[in-house]
């Protein structure tokens, strides 16, 4: 394995971490917006309690991925920044509005409870952001971004405005909701009524995700898209495991096995992302930009590996401690 391939793998690991951690935060905003029934206030409190002081920390993976891509693969970064300027700008605006509204609402007169203006902004931003991130991912996976010689040749609307991109954007949103519902099941194991509320939401999100995934595959098959070739090529073993894991995740939710459901849904996201990565290798942005051709000089890559190693030794234990302290159960706080 070359240095550039190793760094590409590390960046994909950061994308995976962002998907399973920040994805659940986005899904929490969805369920906050659609909280309903006699326990609507309790549902919003459960979302806020689960996200608490750790939710913003999950964006560290996005920051690392962006700066790492800029440093290690500057040509790819430049092409993606131009080709996906519109959806990524909307997604970043959603991230900013989401964070601001979450903070403003938490310090408002009524804090978390009945729906408020800031609550609506929080929920809408939580929907918009994963949708447009999903459309951007679809543009890359479908091979719609053309950059022969490292110069962008496709248009600013290519790839992320297609029917496939819209379906994948909705799929990204539904998976975030699925992740959040299973996480919230675990968070509320000692509150059966709320566990039941989020279990029903997890089942709904599972069915929606399954339908959208099948629709995306059908569109890829009909249009002879590169995405399907990637998943059924080198990525086939992991894609096959994802197909087998899907019913397991649904069974765990249906049988109210929160911890197994959480692991299975996380596994589903990881398997699909890595099936995609392996399938489209050695390309970062097919069909023109490969890992080797767009990598920075070897000296830059070596220095980056050293920084990643030292930074990881500091960052990962710090994040573990953060989650360990703030996610610990406190029965008195729940009383």
Description:
This protein has helices at residues 3-33, 40-51, 60-72, 74-83, 85-106, 117-141, 163-187, 192-223, 226-231, 236-254, 258-280, 291-294, 298-326, 331-334, and strands at residues 283-285, 289-290. With 335 residues, the chain is an all-alpha fold. A two-stranded antiparallel sheet has the order 1-2. α1 (3-33) runs antiparallel to α6, α6 packs across α7 (163-187) and α7 runs antiparallel to α8 (192-223). 44% of the residues are buried. Residues 330-335 have low confidence and may be disordered.
Which features does this protein show?
mainly alpha, 2 strands, two-stranded antiparallel sheet, 1% strand, 335 residues, single chain, disordered C terminus
Number of DSSP helical runs: 14
Mean pLDDT: 89
Distance between the termini: 54 Å
State the oligomer. Answer: single chain
Order of strands in the sheet with most strands:
1-2
Unreliable sequence segments = 330-335
- Radius of gyration (CA) equals 20 Å
Structural class label: mainly alpha
Determine the fraction of residues in helical runs and give it as a percent range: over 70%
Global outline: globular
- SSE sequence, one letter per element: HHHHHHHHHHHEEHHH
Strand content is: under 5%
Got a strand count? 2
Major β-sheet annotation? 2 strands, antiparallel
């Amino acid at each position: 394995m070359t240095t550039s391939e190793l760094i590409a793998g590390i960046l994909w690991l950061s994308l995976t971490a962002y998907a399973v951690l920040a994805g659940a935060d986005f899904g929490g905003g969805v369920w906050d917006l659609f909280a309903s029934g006699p326990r609507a206030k309790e549902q919003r409190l459960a979302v806020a309690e689960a996200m608490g002081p750790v939710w913003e920390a999950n964006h560290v993976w996005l920051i690392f991925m962006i700066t790492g891509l800029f440093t290690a693969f500057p040509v790819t970064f430049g092409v993606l920044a131009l080709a996906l300027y519109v959806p990524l700008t909307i997604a970043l605006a959603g991230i900013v509005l989401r964070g601001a509204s979450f903070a403003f609402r938490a310090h408002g007169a009524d804090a978390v409870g009945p729906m408020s203006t800031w609550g609506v902004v929080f929920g809408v931003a939580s929907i918009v952001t994963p949708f447009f991130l999903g459309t951007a991912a679809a543009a890359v996976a479908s091979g719609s971004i053309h950059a022969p010689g490292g110069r962008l040749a496709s248009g600013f609307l290519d790839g992320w405005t297609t029917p496939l991109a819209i379906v994948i954007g909705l799929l990204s949103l539904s998976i975030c909701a699925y992740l959040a519902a299973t996480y919230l099941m675990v968070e509320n194991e000692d509150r059966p009524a709320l566990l039941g509320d989020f279990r029903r939401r997890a089942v709904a999100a599972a069915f929606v995700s399954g339908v959208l995934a099948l629709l995306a595959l059908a569109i890829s098959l009909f249009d002879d898209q590169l995405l399907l070739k990637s998943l059924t090529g080198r990525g086939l073993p992991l894609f096959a495991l994802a197909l087998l894991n899907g019913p397991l995740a649904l069974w765990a939710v249906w049988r109210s096995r929160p911890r197994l459901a959480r692991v299975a849904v996380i596994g589903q996201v990881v398997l699909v992302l890595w099936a995609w990565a392996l399938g489209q290798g050695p390309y970062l942005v097919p069909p023109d930009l490969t890992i080797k051709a767009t990598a920075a000089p070897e000296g830059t890559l070596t220095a980056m590996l050293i920084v990643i190693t030292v930074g990881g030794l500091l960052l990962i234990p710090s994040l573990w401690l953060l989650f360990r302290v703030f996610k610990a159960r406190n029965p008195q706080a729940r009383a």
